[in-house]
Amino acid sequence: MSKKENRHHEEELNEEAHAVAENQAVENDEEGTEKTLSEAYEALQKEMGEQKDKYVRLFAEFDNYRKRTAKEILEIRQTASKDVILSLLEVLDDIDRAESQKGQDESENLLPEGVQLIFNKFRRILEQRGLKVIETLHTEFDVDTEEALAHVPVENDNLKGKVIEEIQKGYMLNDKLIRFAKVVVGK
């Protein structure tokens, strides 16, 4: 209900309270008319205040329920495909392995251009659904998104505490971690 409707409702209650108070006053003796009228008016004002308080609380409760429900529905929609996408990550890992084989020998093109287009389309569809790769290579090791499989001594001081090799990519789905990146960290 809008504020305008709320004011209109209050005005109706006030008018009703006045009408009831006047009817009660007419029925009473002339001596107690003034006293009875003010008592009836106060009683109705009190009742109207209680009703208004109940109405405001109910409206606030409903508004909170509506917001909470909308938020829950949005979260469910964003993570509903999580299980399917987790299953597809294995396929995506296989695609990455196949592409890495392509780069080793340029004389033999093991991946035809059409297959590469399919791989790219597959990645693009997953990205549209909210999947993001966690970039880890040569970044500081982050325990919140990465799992260290090994610590390897490095000669370059710039690589100490940084990821020097990525064993398995990590992924986020709609800004929520769904798979840790498995990495090797320099020490």
Low-confidence runs of at least 5 consecutive residues: none
Instruction: Report the end-to-end length measured between terminal Cα atoms.
Output: 63 Å
Beta-strand percent range: 15-25%
Biggest beta sheet summary? 3 strands, antiparallel
Structural class: alpha+beta
Lateral strand order in the biggest sheet:
1-4-5
Q: What's the count of strands?
A: 6
Tell me the series of helices and strands, N- to C-terminal: HHHHEEEEEE
Q: Rg, please?
A: 35 Å
Helical content, roughly?
A: 55-70%
Total domains, how many?
A: 3
Please give the count of helices.
Answer: 4
Mean pLDDT, all residues = 83
Outline, from the CA principal axes? elongated
Question: SSE layout and pairings?
Answer:
Blueprint: H1 3-27, H2 33-79, H3 82-104, H4 113-128, E1 131-134, E2 146-152, E3 163-168, E4 170-173, E5 176-179, E6 181-186
Parallel strand pairs: 2-6
Antiparallel strand pairs: 1-4, 3-6, 4-5
Helix pairs in contact: 1-2, 3-4
